[in-house]
Give the backbone structure.
Amino acid sequence: MKTDTDPKLLWAKRLLIYVLGLYLMAIGVVFSSRSALGVSPVSSLGNVLYQIGSSAGAPSFVNLGNCTTAVFCLYLLAEFLVLRRDFRPAMLLQIVASLLFGQLVNLASGMLSFLPAPGSYPLQLIYLLISVPLVAAGVMLYLSPNILAMPGEGLCLAISRKSGLAMGTVKTIFDCTVVALSAVASLLYFRGLVGVREGTVICALLVGFVFKLLQKPFQKPLLQFVERETRVERALEAASQGYLTDTAGNPKIIITIGREFGSGGMEIGRRLAERLGITFYDGQIDELAAEQSGLPLEKVREMSRHRERAAFSELRSAIYEMSDALSPEDLLYVAQASAIRQIAAGGESCVILGRCADYVLYDDPNCFRIFVHARPDIRIKRTMAMFGLNEEEARREMENTDRARGQYYKRYTGREYGAQKYYHLGLDSGLLGTEESVESIIGILRRWCDVRGTHPLYMR
């Protein structure tokens, strides 16, 4: 995103959002700590150490903020041990983020000192639930300017990079490890769980969920305010350098086909390509994506088959949302979208199945966008015949796949999957059948070429 804003003003805006985000997180940590039900996993060890210090009559500087900073510095040390030679000096600046966050926790503790200690479990639960949206909003704000990562996130990214494990898996392991260490420390000192309890689990489950709810209306305005593109947009722009649409010279048509599960969109696309004598792109895009992303082809194929059904964990994926790190799903989307753009930049006409191709090529004047649908009962029967399923199994397969495709499409395009306003043609394959659907498409394509005034040889 190019900007004409004065650099000093831009940095002032980004720093304001960054510090505000850390402060909201700090207030959330204080509320959850006061609840005595536990805090979020990443802060749980610092909270337990603080509880131990308070119980032992430690000096006043052994407070919640300073204990949190100390633990975060341990995370940074662990990050150094994981990365070794790949550890960059600039990563030491995470100490600054840790110190700042710790002092903001102390500031929030002082400002909230007037709050009474919760004397009942319902009041404890209220304190805890107040902390959840504060932490979620804080994470969203502090990540958006992309200034300094907190050591917890940095450690997870380092482990993911070195081990090759998915970030979601690493985040789960990290959270479980920190919570286990916190529980052990609490049990050894208190002979019970203090500072890490059911509230830790509640925070782990709810913070990411609330983060997603807040992200939908606020992510784009936030990124616009700090004048940043999303990491996927930047990565796709970099990967697609040199992509140009062919508006002159050899006329061509690029047909993209989206479809409901069980509607026969793949068969229609394949038959259409055969009739027109052009290339049908489906699995070949995975091969191109593997080359571009560096991911093994089998891994790409596996993700391509199952990505639409993957339930993105709200908390585990939160680190990726507005940072520069690309999740495996992001890498796959960027690689496939770049491959689709490269195909479109060539001189050939083709049919491209799925993979958000209609969105990726939305501004390409040579692109004709189709969405294939059919009545649920027809799609269920088709699914039963294709996969040997009974009616209930086919219904679940259809509903789950359609729902997941819609979520994936919404995630990367911001649009509703199958919304007719984004397509040139919506086709009821259940009414027309495969062959009649192909004939209808060809007839409409000829008319489309008439309007445009460009006719590829096979359409004349």
